[in-house]
Design goal:
- The protein is α/β, with parallel strands linked by helices.
- It has a single domain, classed as FAD/NAD(P)-binding domain, CATH 3.50.50.60.
- It is built from twelve helices and 19 strands.
- The strands form four sheets. Strands 1, 2, 8, 9, 10, 11, 18 and 19 form an eight-stranded mixed beta sheet that branches.
- α1 runs parallel beside α6, α1 packs across α12 and α3 crosses α12.
- The structure holds flavin-adenine dinucleotide (FAD).
Length: 429
């Protein structure tokens, strides 16, 4: 792998955040090197997402970013087919006790200026989605939301970056951020050093390992979320769907992608790394104890003991192993979806997968260009809903890397918020 030994911007990570950053920086005539440890793009979070591009159902501080990102996704349609469909998003309410939560989400959306978000009764929902003939009470409806096939969306940004002259290094792992007199000056990689004017660390769940090489602590917990995909069925619905217990979208090829939806149960492998974040995670673990399946990762602990570190970059796998899928959970999600959409009863799954999510204690992303040495931007902690934001995160990272500031409001996402009292998210995911 021959990479230039100097670049204006070195981007670490070939998921949607890194790809969009490389594309934005190269389009602004910066010389760019993107480093990705896997042999292609979107092999971790970004290639495993459900592909729902939604504004609604996130914290109000993220609404402006999500709205801008959706606009950028829609513009990208002219460039390539990435299965973009603007079908809107329905949050189903299947029991009385869920209603106040949806009412709260609607009022949050209205406060943030999303006037088009509405609470519909079951008959109104069936006008939008006639196949929803099973029992439910109503749904929160956002007509502007969309969906796409996430690995294709990421590839689009990688191609855009390459066309604008960025160098993409697949199969190259970043091993250390190099600092000199308070400024980031280079990235050490498995194929040598790349000198850098600025560095964007967009390495998903592994970002804390890189950050640690310059003394930074970023509280991220890696959890696994599960998905399945069915065999193709006749076209039934174009909306993305979320509810307590199921989430889904139907691809243009007829396959239905299903997750456990709102507040989904996730899996976490406990290692020694968890000890250092107890202050952040204990309150969240108590609130969401029914949402996390915990298993002790003995092999992981042994590796940490061997390396005498819980955050050494030696512990970052060159090619990540397949995260296990919780099949009973996604089967039950498919059954619950089929109760609302009876045409899906008995439809066989043909693919299962799990994906690592970079969870933060408050469920909000970390987007910051004022952490650690000058010239370092960190974007991580997208907490299970960051694929949507990718295009705008790329613009923000590029602003921070090239100009040192951005006009978008990133104050709620600064790392320094963890110095004070950490707020609790309303949902697990
Ligand atoms: C099952 C599942 C479903 C989801 N569904 C949705 C959804 O419907 N909508 C939504 O908006 N979001 C969803 N998400 C969340 C979304 O996938 C992520 O928030 C987003 O893709 C994160 O993108 P990223 O580029 O920041 O990180 P990633 O895609 O994880 O990319 C980080 C990259 O950095 C690379 N890397 C790490 N360390 C190094 C290193 N040292 N050197 C070189 N490379 C390195 C990794 O290999 C990886 O490719 C889902 C996530 C999962 C797991």
């Amino acid at each position: 792998m021959n990479l230039p030994d100097t670049a204006d911007v070195v981007v670490i990570g070939g998921g949607i955040t890194g790809a969009a950053t490389a594309a934005a920086a190269a389009a602004r005539n910066a010389s760019v090197v993107l480093i990705e440890k896997e042999t292609g793009p979107a092999r971790e979070g970004s290639g495993r997402a459900q592909g729902s591009l939604r504004v609604q159902g996130r914290h109000g501080s993220e609404f402006p970013l999500a709205q801008e990102a959706l606009r950028l996704w829609a513009e990208a349609v002219a460039e390539a087919d990435f299965e973009f469909v603007r079908g809107g998003n329905l949050y189903f309410c299947t029991s009385e006790d869920e209603l106040p939560i949806l009412q709260h989400l609607v009022s949050q959306a209205h406060t943030a200026g999303l006037a088009e978000v509405q609470l519909l009764d079951a008959d109104q929902v069936r006008e939008i989605m006639p196949c929803a003939t099973g029992p439910f009470l109503g749904a929160m409806w956002s007509p502007v939301d969309a969906q796409c096939q996430p690995e294709k969306g990421t590839e689009l940004y990688i191609r855009r970056a390459e066309k604008s002259g960025a160098h993409i290094g697949f199969g190259v792992k970043a091993t250390r951020l190099v600092e000199n007199r308070g400024r980031i000056v280079a990235v050490d990689t498995t194929v040598g050093r790349v000198h850098a004017g600025a560095v964007v660390a967009a390495a998903g769940v592994w970002t804390p390992h890189l950050a640690r090489t310059v003394g930074l602590r970023i509280p991220i917990m890696a959890v696994i979320m599960s998905e399945l995909e069915t065999r193709p069925v006749e076209p039934l619905f174009q909306q993305t769907i979320r509810a307590f217990g199921f989430g889904a979208r139907q691809r243009p090829n007829g396959r239905v992608v299903v997750s456990a939806g709102l507040n989904a149960k996730v899996t976490h492998s406990v290692t020694l790394a968890d000890l250092s974040g107890v202050r952040y995670w204990l309150p969240r673990a108590m609130s969401f104890r029914n949402n996390v399946k915990v298993a002790v990762d003995i092999a992981g602990i042994m590796r940490q003991l061997r390396h005498r570190s819980v955050l050494s970059t030696d512990l970052v796998p060159h090619e990540s192993p397949e995260p296990p899928c919780d099949r009973p959970l996604v089967h039950s999600a498919l059954d619950r979806l089929a109760a609302v959409v009876p045409d899906l009863k008995g439809v066989a799954p043909v693919r299962y997968w799990g994906g690592l999510i970079d969870l933060t204690p408050d469920g909000l992303p970390v987007i910051d260009g004022q952490v650690g040495p000058d010239g370092l931007t960190v974007i991580t902690g997208l907490s299970g809903h960051g694929f949507t934001l990718g295009p705008v995160l790329g613009e923000i990272a590029c602003d921070l890397a090239l100009n040192g500031h951005t006009n978008r409001d990133i104050e709620p996402f600064r790392l320094s918020r963890y110095r004070g009292k950490v707020s609790q998210p309303e949902m697990m995911i």
